[in-house]
Amino acid sequence: MSKTTQTITLAILKPDTMKSGNAGSVINMLEDAGFKIRASKVLKLRQGEAGAFYSVHRERPFFESLVQFMTSGPCMPLALEHERAVPYLREVIGATDPSEAAEGTIRALYAESKERNAIHASDSDVNAQLELGFFFNRLELVAEA
Ligand code: CMP
Questions:
Q1: What's the 123 CA to ligand 1 centre distance in angstroms?
Q2: Which residue among 22, 26, 89, 118 is least enclosed by CB atoms within 10 Å?
């Protein structure tokens, strides 16, 4: 029998989720979906850090507001493991805009708006590696159970 290949992606429980007390519920949903938590921490991003993390959106009209929001309180980066972790997590969290997010997804349940949308997920394997490296060092990432 062939062994399935597990991959890791980055999620961030955003400040809206931390403030509203929904972090536990969101983590439950992630675990119920089959993700294994391989690293986690709680931290408050500074302006420069949030700007660097979202630098791909630097020219977008929502950039300043996004940085403001992401620095408004603690957030919780998580390293999550699953088969095809990147696309699967994006499926579980739903569309960026909660009004377009499929029923039962994390954003449909917990996001307030396109900006305050509860959770971030990496959009490709390359970006997952970059984003995991932004928050976690080698020692903090548990390779396997
Ligand atoms: P995230 O998945 O973290 O990736 C980029 C973030 O920018 C996104 O979630 C939203 O929080 C935010 N964002 C994307 N598009 C918009 C928009 N049109 N207006 C406001 N915020 C946005």
A1: 12
A2: 22
